[in-house]
């Protein structure tokens, strides 16, 4: 039915590749391309399907991307490389008439700052070209937006308070490691916090606001308010929202390491000269930290990510909590990757499936909540990320 090209061969891409291969009725032709072809070949070997094609491409280079797209002629590109490559890949998609999906919004390499404006600026061009671009289709962003759309469609007349809560209660038995690309992850966590209240964005110091929240099957975990990209599109798409926040759990040990890393300058993205060579401290740190792809084997515990929503239905206030719990070992047994890669790679595949089934196909540049959430929610249950609902419980927020 569909010819898909995936760019990137990291943890998230590995999971998406397993899932694409499992859904061959939708994805009839599949190629994986990344900076290093051997990593793509390793994924194909792990899946055991020699029909999957592989290629080398530098996704910072629009001309290389165009040559690859013109040669393979995919209908859609799933971008699972890094946020730095979003715009070059979108440019190549426009040049070659290819549809687009990603899981993280664009970030310039030299500035730790993310927002949708750069990608939303492509809306007219995608619309005129008759091409669909689906932005932020991982778990958060991704499923968090689909959950919100589902709540708005079925359970609320007006959503007023939205809290996205992300808990990783796993233990990988390493002193310090990040669960996805260390460079992107540390840039995100060390930024100032930001949340939305009564029509304004309020900035906080990094991880300044925190409180214990109780997660299903896990218990209470200290949760920290952070800026997260989906808040930007959700408050725009649901103007009744008075307050929108994002919370993520961190252990004390993790935060101590992070403080030391920052304190000694290793989180810096400013290039320095070392023995005549220019290096970026954070990129060097990434090179010595454990690869998130290798954490799975000894990872115990589970993740729990959901939306806690308060609003009005039929003139009455009600609360709604929709969430998924994902066990790291279950993810590892199925794909060789840990739960954070799994919870991102599965929704990326489902988003592409929605496109190929014609359910999420509309010229322009869209966030996930712009589409019908129902078929996506149905697939979450079938593809390994079942969800649960609690009505009128205590949201703690
Ligand atoms: P990894 O670093 O493991 O994988 C990134 C892959 O992209 C690597 O294979 C890397 O190549 C490849 N790559 C990097 N630069 C280029 C380039 N210029 N050209 C071609 N390939 C390139 O990251 P993850 O798998 O952990 O994360 C992938 C994406 O998912 C990130 O954008 C991340 O922000 C996003 N994410 C989204 C989440 C969500 O819920 N929405 C949650 C977690 C992650 P090489 O292997 O050679 O380094």
UniProtKB/TrEMBL annotation:
Gene3D superfamilies: Dihydrodipicolinate Reductase, domain 2, NAD(P)-binding Rossmann-like Domain. Keywords: Oxidoreductase. The keyword Oxidoreductase applies. The keyword Iron does not apply. It comes from the Bacteria. GO terms for molecular function: saccharopine dehydrogenase (NAD+, L-lysine-forming) activity. Residues 138-385 form the Saccharopine dehydrogenase-like C-terminal domain. Residues 4-134 form the Saccharopine dehydrogenase NADP binding domain. SUPFAM superfamilies: NAD(P)-binding Rossmann-fold domains. Its EC number is 1.5.1.7. Pfam families: Sacchrp_dh_C, Sacchrp_dh_NADP. This is Saccharopine dehydrogenase.
């Amino acid at each position: 039915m569909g010819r898909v090209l995936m760019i990137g061969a990291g943890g998230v891409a590995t999971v998406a590749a397993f899932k694409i291969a499992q859904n061959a009725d939708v994805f009839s032709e599949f190629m994986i391309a990344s900076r290093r072809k051997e990593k793509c070949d390793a994924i194909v070997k792990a899946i055991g399907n020699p029909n999957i094609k592989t290629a080398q491409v530098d996704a910072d280079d629009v001309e290389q991307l165009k040559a690859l797209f013109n040669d393979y002629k995919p209908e859609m590109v799933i971008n699972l490389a890094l946020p730095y490559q979003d715009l070059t890949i979108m440019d190549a998609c426009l040049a070659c008439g290819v549809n687009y999906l990603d899981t993280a919004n664009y970030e310039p390499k030299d500035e730790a700052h993310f927002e949708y404006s750069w990608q939303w600026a492509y809306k007219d061009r995608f619309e005129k070209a008759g091409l669909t671009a689906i932005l932020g289709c991982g778990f958060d962003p991704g499923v968090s937006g689909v959950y919100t759309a589902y709540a708005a469609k079925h359970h609320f007349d007006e959503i007023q308070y939205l809290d996205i809560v992300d808990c990783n209660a796993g233990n990988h038995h390493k002193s310090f490691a990040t669960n996805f690309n260390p460079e992107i992850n540390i840039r995100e966590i060390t930024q100032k916090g930001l949340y939305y209240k009564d029509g304004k964005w309020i900035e906080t110091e990094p991880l300044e606001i925190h409180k214990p929240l109780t997660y299903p099957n896990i218990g209470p975990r200290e949760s920290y308010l952070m800026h997260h990209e989906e808040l930007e599109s959700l408050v725009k798409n649901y103007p009744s929202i008075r307050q929108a926040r994002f919370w993520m759990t961190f252990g004390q040990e993790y935060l101590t390491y992070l403080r030391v890393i920052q304190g000694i300058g290793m989180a810096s993205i400013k290039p320095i000269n070392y023995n005549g060579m220019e290096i970026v401290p954070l990129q060097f740190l990434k090179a010595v930290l454990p690869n998130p792809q290798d954490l799975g084997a000894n990872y115990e515990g589970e993740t729990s990510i959901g939306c806690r929503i308060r609003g009005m239905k039929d003139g009455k206030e009600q609360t709604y909590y929709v969430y998924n719990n994902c066990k790291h070992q279950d993810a590892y047994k199925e794909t060789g990757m840990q739960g954070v890669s799994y919870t991102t790679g599965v929704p990326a595949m489902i988003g592409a499936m929605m496109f190929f089934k014609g359910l999420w196909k509309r010229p322009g540049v869209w966030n996930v909540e712009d589409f019908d959430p129902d078929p996506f929610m149905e697939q979450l249950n079938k593809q390994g990320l079942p969800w649960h609902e609690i009505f009128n419980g205590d949201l703690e927020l």
